[in-house]
Amino acid sequence: MIINHPLLGPRDASEFVYKGDASLIERPDWQADNAAELFHDYLYLRDNPAGEHQELWYHEQGDRSWLVVTRNTLTHDITNVELARDAVLAKQAKKSGRGEK
Amino acid sequence: MKHRGLKYSGFKVIKEALTGHKGWKPVWRTPKPKKEYDVVIVGGGGHGLATAYYLAKEFGLTNVAVLEKGWIGSGNVGRNTTIVRSNYLLPGNEPFYEFSMKLWENLEQDFNYNAMVSQRGILNLFHNDAGRDAYARRGNAMMLAGADAVLLDQDGVREMYPCLDFENARFPIKGGLLQPRGGTVRHDAVAWGYARGADSRGVDIIQNCEVTGMVIENGVCSGVETSQGTIKAKKVAVCVAGSSSRVMSMAGMRLPIESHVLQAFVSEGLKPILPGVVTFGAGHFYVSQSDKGGLVFGGDIDGYNSYAQRGNLPVVEDVCEGGMALMPMIGRARLLRMWGGVMDMSMDGSPFIDKTHIDGLYFNGGWCYGGFKATPASGWCYAHLLAKDEPHPVATEYRLDRFQRGAMIDEKGMGAQPNLH
Amino acid sequence: MSQINRIDGGLLDRTQKLNFTFNGQTLEGFAGDTLASALLANGHKMVGRSFKYHRPRGIFSAGSEEPNALVQLRSGAYQEPNTRATITELFQGLEATSQNHRGSLKYDFMAVNDLFSSFLSAGFYYKTFMWPKAFWEKFYEPVIRAAAGLGRLSGQDDPDIYDKSFLHCDVLVVGAGPSGLSAALSAGRAGARVILMDEDFRMGGRLNAETLSVNDQSGYEWATQAIAELSAMDNVRLMTRTTAYGAYDHGIVGALERVTDHLVSSNNKPRQILWRVYTKRTILCAGSTERPIAFGNNDRPGIMLAGAVRAYVNRWGALPGKRVAVFTNNDDGWRTATDLAVKGVEITAVIDSRDGQPPVAVPNGAAVVMGGRIVDTQGRHGIKSITLSNGQKIPTDCLAVSGGWSPNVQLTCHQRGRPTWREDIAAFVPGGELPLGMMVAGAAAGNLSLSSVLQDGHNLGNKALSDLGFKPTTETAAKSDEETVGISAFWHVKESKARAWLDLQNDVTVKDVKLSHQEGFRAVEHLKRYTTLGMATDQGKTANIPALAVMAECTGKSIPETGTTIFRPPYTPVAIGALAGRARGKDFRPSRLTPSHSWAEEQGAVFVEAGMWYRAQWFPKAGETHWRQSVDREVTQTRASVGVCDVTTLGKIDIQGKDAAEFLNKVYANAFAKLPVGKVRYGIMLREDGIMMDDGTSARFAENHFVMTTTTANAVGVFRHMEFCRQCLWPNMDVHLISSTEQYAQFAVAGPNARKLLQKIVDRNHDISNEAFPFMACGEVTVCGGIPARLFRISFSGELAYEIAVPTRYGDSLVRTLMAAGEEFDVTAYGTEALGVMRIEKGHAAGNELNGQTTAQDLGMGRMVSKKKDCIGNTLSERENLNRKDGLSLVGFRPVNRSDELKAGSHFIAKGKSAEMVNDEGWMSSVAYSPSLGHSIGLGFIKQGSERLGEIVRATDPIREGEIEVEIVSAHFIDPEGERLRA
């Protein structure tokens, strides 16, 4: 497979290390009342879709970026790649934007 | 329940040969689904068929259907490296796999089908002192659970497998943990043997019947929607390995499972050169030689979520590198075929055989790439759970809530990341 | 008498005679021959035995689809089993032997199987061999195993080398026949980067074997010109002897180039190269494969594919027979009759399964039977005659059979492609979703006439160009006369009473398919698995479609309704050595060497693999004959005076930024935010699931600058995890990480004289006295007159100890300086064994304890896990099962009988309880002989261990047939109060 790194261009997937579902970037609040349940669901439960999947890849043999890759688990086609950091910051911005309303 | 099918034997083969093979009957019937069953098993793989067989034979439940979306045995029972073993470490696992091993040892006489159970031994190599210590711990755990284990030093390994790289290895072989009762089984025959045994006891095996939905009302599951219509059931038993998340999502459930692809490989046929199963401790490679002569081998999963029954080259190369590092004599053997199977990789590398929070809905899955060896025990224990509504004594730990309780069964100590198990 | 069946013509270099041997007999051929063509030229028909019935087998095809003519090539360690004679290029000195027979090829003892064939029907083995139970493994299976298999491995290490590499291009053209050459010409002329590969050693494909003309020249002359034109283009790479064997994701194609297989010796060049081709467009021009018709005894040597017979005559000047008959269901079969007749070969008969008139002129003297059927053949070691359904018997020594041509769709199926049926050519053509960027041209796409093939290749070459933004040239496609390609599907002769073969190698017959149907194995995959159809080395290239047709007939459905056969990589088998490349022996994985490696080698150190690293395990001195002597001495000397150990392999991570302290506070389970500058703290790191991930230290060199160490084993994983935390969990933190494991050489200096030794090399302006630089201090210093260094006062051994780090380039001289300066203290170098002994004596956990299954609580560090802050792992570490009252804890063990040796891996059983799993209370994780205490000591996990100090339990070790009594003691065997390390 080839991953089109947002900073470095197309790189062979063997340069990367795979972690799993990109929902792992949304770590729960440790002080929530149901923190134990939230952390359980966060760490252990997966949608595991047959189709489009957002997932985390780490460019270990490269620039050490964590990427959020949108890839189809049936066809392996990759439709989007972004820096995980950007994805997290965008999510945060969206959340705080909603919060203000 | 009495067996009402054809009895196979050497005598029968001779008789048929002399009369033009006219007397052989279909190994299983092709029935139309009934409106309702006591138990509907979703998934006609090894585990589903074994479950049906033991439900009928051991627990007297014969109003049972096995629904298979394609052809039976088309999942991992039809695409694995055929290894059976019970060399586990943890108390949650070892008694279960040893139970399975004992069932393997009597399987063929039990279901009157030659699945070629061949206990030629499985040898796990170690390459340093820490590896030896870990295998000693494991071997002792196996023996405490009534299984067999032998700790070999380098000379012991050399005697069994003189063709390994002892002289020039990057990670020298220091010894190995041998389970003499481990070995291989003709994988497809397992599915067919269970299918035949279940069918002859009245179980309906329905191929080309895809489950498209669950009938659930007020927290009770009373059947399934299928491509051949609605089928009612007192109990619905899901057993679909790589498709676990897809099927259970029809019941609104998320599972502690990811689907990953594992590739396997077979070489051209060769005259016998490897007596048993060998696994390399310093790379991703394990190998045995089939009765037809092919080297059957595999390694690590590709490592990314996938429902495609195929993998990519980096893992192919990695596996062959392991093979050449371990036994450089296979360089001139040719890889004939490679294929991929979809593995239901669980969060701790261990399976589930459990009721769900929905009444009447049961789940069996999370076998990772170790499901084949578990087939008999998985079928038996699932049948036990379905028939009695309580777990079989060797499968008490395979609960869906174990992560909530912190009761992981993590043989490799890799944590909640499926592709590391 | 040599080359009795050699005739004029063909693409051979007759000036180069090549001698070779087959089964020890010396024979002669020419450059340009394959082993198969040379054997035919020498009149050899029978070359092997089939898999199951050990029936005589001859040459069947002229290509990589060959099911029959498999030989053992070369000898000794170079022995190469199952090699297809049809694609083995002849070379001077080639050695080949036939396979799969006991006794001679002609008189194979195993041929007795054939007499019992009716007992050995498809799947017979599933129904028998079950009684008595023990007989399967002891008797039946060994017999079956010995009879099965084909060729033999030598059992010796493969002496050849293999390379792997990458190629990049705009357009990859797979197959250099007429369509491939056309496609490469149109793409190449427009300037695209083109790779054209072909499995043959001569490009041209069928043009080399046919008498058809292109652009008013002979086909092979046109091909030769096209190849010359392409060779002259800088943007085109031509690769002969190269097979594209697999299509992988995102346009990556795997290809195997056979570099020296056609030479008598590889001469230290790589035997083969595995290419991974990264291409934007792939044009698959893989041609088509002829398939046979099944009829009684259709497996005898001399029965061949019609196209192959013609190829041997036209390309190789080799006659497969002197009196040739043809059996066909299509016009192409007739071409064999015509071509051979032109060469003066006697055509005894042409039997066409179709009714009506012959499609072309009938060769002189040939009997023509339209609507004819062959029901049987005769000839024990080679065909002698055929019998028709009308009872007529026709003598013949070669029967050319054509059942039509199947497009080579294999690569289109390697991902999601599912071929579709085309009734007009009675064949599957590429269908479904093709691999990314792949197009199919020519016969592979089902275009069976030469003129359409040429046009198709040209068009798709241009299509690739326009897809990629190149401008096609105005050149047009090469032209050829339209030839007739009519076919009427005909798969097997129903009237045949004798067995009719479908899979020639695995001995699958029409009856087997029928039996498979009768027993319910009707899905294509069931059919394959039950009968072994298509599982042989040829992957059923000639067998699958006819077998599918027989199954369709049984089920009463059409072929496409019955199923499709799909294909998995590789297209043809690939040597495992090639897939491994250079990664074998010592080069299996990279070797990481510590900065003191050369020095340690000079000292005669024994090294041990630690991940990729090689570390000094111990340093034997003159007179020491057992490793224990060396290790005991290293420990004793260190504890008595001072020792030096290279600890560079520990992971080192530099952490900087305004939020560095807060970041550490979140990745470590214990508190770090308030660590003062100039101090080091021991830290434990949990995984998010609350299990111990790693331990180590972090030193605060400045307000915003920390240096972390990790264990050797987890260095990579911890860094990856911390980058995950930094980028994915807390991207707003001002913190940056860099791995500096390889940038610093680090040495432990331990023992009562450690300070005195260091004071000799640390520059005097740095005060490292106990007062100025106490236990757990850290600082930047200079050594040896200005070399920058980092100094940490930390101790793994339990002694007064330091770790000192210098830039890696000074590592070698630092160890030499330390050892020289330490002479007056009787300094010793110590290796990983002594390190291990001292850490066990001190009760420190290491890899055997941090095994990914244990919690901080198990390790006696439960209280370090802060409940007052958010850190990785603390929420889930609170789960009930991880906090059981009867949970494990890490404690020390010593043998009740002090002379007993403890064994790591033993399990603990309470006295009086039976040794079984229900009574298993834990295990011994690490053991050592303590020279300080004079007996064996161990660390281990046992239930409620910390509350059971003083209790005696059994350490049972059934796998080594041992059991001893051990006492549970504190894990701190040495200096439990820690006075030494603060001294």
Would you mind describing this structure in some detail?
The complex is a heterotrimer of chains A (101), B (421) and C (983). Chain A has one domain (2-25, 32-100): Folate-binding fold. In chain A, the strands form two sheets. Chain A has a four-stranded antiparallel beta sheet with strand order 3-4-5-6. Chain A has helices at 35-44, 84-100, and strands spanning 2-5, 9-12, 17-21, 52-58, 66-72, 78-83. The mean pLDDT of chain A is 95. Chain A is built from two helices and six strands. Chain B is an alpha/beta fold. Chain B has a domain at 27-82 and 187-255 and 348-405: FAD/NAD(P)-binding domain (3-Layer(bba) Sandwich), CATH 3.50.50.60. Chain B has ten helices and 18 strands. In chain B, strands 1, 2, 8, 9, 10, 11, 17 and 18 form an eight-stranded mixed beta sheet that branches. Chain C is an alpha+beta fold. Among the domains of chain C are: 13-116, Roll (Ubiquitin-like (UB roll)), CATH 3.10.20.440; 162-288 and 407-468, 3-Layer(bba) Sandwich (FAD/NAD(P)-binding domain); 289-405 and 488-562, FAD/NAD(P)-binding domain, CATH 3.50.50; 651-739, Alpha-Beta Plaits (2-Layer Sandwich), CATH 3.30.70.1400; 876-969, Aminomethyltransferase beta-barrel domains (Elongation Factor Tu (Ef-tu), domain 3, Beta Barrel), CATH 2.40.30.110. In chain C, helix 9 (510-518) crosses helix 11 (544-555). Chain C starts with 12 loop residues before the first strand and ends in a 14-residue tail after the last strand. Chains in contact: A-B, A-C, B-C. The interface between B and C is large, with 115 and 120 residues. Chain A: It comes from Kiloniella spongiae. Chain A: One of its GO terms (molecular function) is sarcosine oxidase activity. Chain A: InterPro entries: SoxD, SoxD_sf. Chain A: One of its GO terms (biological process) is tetrahydrofolate metabolic process. Chain A: This is Sarcosine oxidase subunit delta. Chain B: Residues 39-83 form the Rhodanese domain.
